Amino acid sequence: MNHTAFLIALQTATQQLRATAQAEFEPLDLALLNHQPAPGSWSILECLEHLNRYSRYYNPQLSKALTQASSIADQPVGYSWLGRKSVNMMRPDNRKKHTTLKHMNPSGSRLGREVLNEFLAHQTALLDLLARAHAADLNRKAVPVEFFRLLKLRLGEALEFVVVHQQRHLQQALRVKAGLQVSLAC
């Protein structure tokens, strides 16, 4: 996919993530947002807090990479083996469960509405980063992987990883909400 189409697709997905979170989760009361569907399962706010923890790392890394990135003409976005594997592993349609790193796991937390507000703010920041990325070389290895910083993703891979990871966990949060509606109906 070429540079421009790639970024437009990520911007559209990010706008949809933000709109979905606002529409689906803002109306819920705090008890429902913190409800865990089963022991060890994440609540809606735990799903969002997990994403916030990743955004706290990746958004500054992406901003730094964009500041240092050279300009490039519209060209196809390329993938390294690590980048392709990372993105495919996080795609929402990949139903395989993955173990979350301890420091990224919010399990058992009692969280407030500030988690949702922070998530929405991170989406706004990501949209700004995606707008800046239109003038950057997306094929430059520039973003250290959170769990092993010696490895680097290309800028385009990192942007896509962040978006698909958010889509994956927002779908998880929506499944938690759907379960709430079923249990409330009974």
From TrEMBL:
SUPFAM superfamilies: DinB/YfiT-like putative metalloenzymes. Residues 14-173 form the DinB-like domain. It comes from the Bacteria. InterPro entries: DinB-like, DinB/YfiT-like. Signal peptide: none annotated. Pfam families: DinB_2. This is DinB family protein. It comes from Hymenobacter aranciens.
